[in-house]
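User: Could you check the structure of this?
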Amino acid sequence: MSKKNQDSATIMVIFGGTGDLTHRKLMPALYNLVIDNLLPRNFAVVAIGRREKTDEQYRNEVFASINNYSRNRVEAKYWNKLKDIIFYRKFDFTDMSGYKTLSETLGNLCGKFHAGYESTECNRIFYLAVSPQYFETIVHGLEVSGLAKNNKSWVRLVIEKPFGEDLITAKKLNRKLLEVFSENDIYRIDHYLGKEMIQNILVLRFCNSVFESLWNNKYIDNIQISLCEKNGIGTRGEYYEKSGAMRDMVQNHIVQILSLVAMEPPVNLETDSIRTEKLKVVQAIEDFTPELLRNNVVFGQYGKGFIDGVQVPGYREEERVSPVSNTETFVALKLHINNFRWAGTPFYIRTGKRLGIASSEIVVQFKSLPNILYFKDKDHLQEPNLLVIRIQPNVGVFFQFNTRDFNSYNNIVSTKMDASQINRSSGNTPEAYERLIYDILRGDATLFSRWDEVEASWKFADKIIEYGGKKDFNFPNYDAGSMGPVKAFELLARDGREWINI
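Assistant: Sure, the predicted structure tokens are below.
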């Protein structure tokens, strides 16, 4: 962090301070930023909740959360630094009178940072770690209380997904935000973009001529993006019934990953240059006609089954889920990007819950050589060259190529070069929220979604969601512990391809 940012007094206000996101992700992230000395020198956290707690009670709860979820063990010298700058304030954020009290609290805190500081001289981050239904309410409260305006320092608003339920609601929410905050001060967070290997996509592409020179339809046969989970919906039944896999994963995480994989080289590494190239990818996705929707979209919902030998219920048997629900827990898509780089190269996408493996990865399959020379007889098996970018759980890069089998006279074998071992031994790498909070503090919005990106992704997703809403599915159509519906495999088999699991 620059000296200017280190010296600036900054207050981070977390709405939803008693929630799961705050305890599992935000507080452990702040603790690790303390260890790495990446927080401003004058920094404070004000957690907002509806329950009655003292500062000390809340700090004890945060300590327990950090102890459970942090990548670093709790050490007294670091915990004491964080503990002393955490404060808790109780108020119902639907009650507008509470924002006046919050304003007074922030003013008093700001005055303690440095002699002579005025209440408006501290930078402010308002982090909305709450249900989306409260976004507009909180923004309105910040507006009427004057908290959203800070003439002498910056104010930033951070919003978690989902950003709207469709294009119409997203536009409505965005209009309200822009009445209060400028686009440059709105940080629409997608935690997937904070993951190490997602950030590494651009480095792999644009810092290695061996890849970038081949990164096009002339050399690449297909690209697969798979975000597979063993977990079910847990206690999120009420949310997931309104969301489904399309809204929960495809419209945000997968579209963001797709845009990074397929984008053109930006003119520079400035935030807007990268975002503009990402936007072009989403805008270039082939329009889904009724015929393409029928042939290239597969929805699924898990039934009963076994995960790691343990029997689990079907989706319709989960807590707060309708027994006749048609909400999808699995989506597979085939799409094309209509530009010169990618015309004709299919992108296959799948995401689902209660699948047989838990992994998130991008598989780039290069075109095979013609069946001549070494591959002209049946004794030689040609495996395709694969570049696999592993997002989780085993973070790293995997490359498959063909070489001579030195244990025989003339056989050819597939050799696998796995760089994930290097990553695992390199240390305790930062988690997504650490990176994202650090970027918010620095004012670097590269890993956050600009409105036109969100708008384009909803235009893409809405057509598919509308198509699914008109169908009467025969759910459930895959067992928990399997790899999804049969039709998802047929989607690739029609093209002579198959899903690749490394």
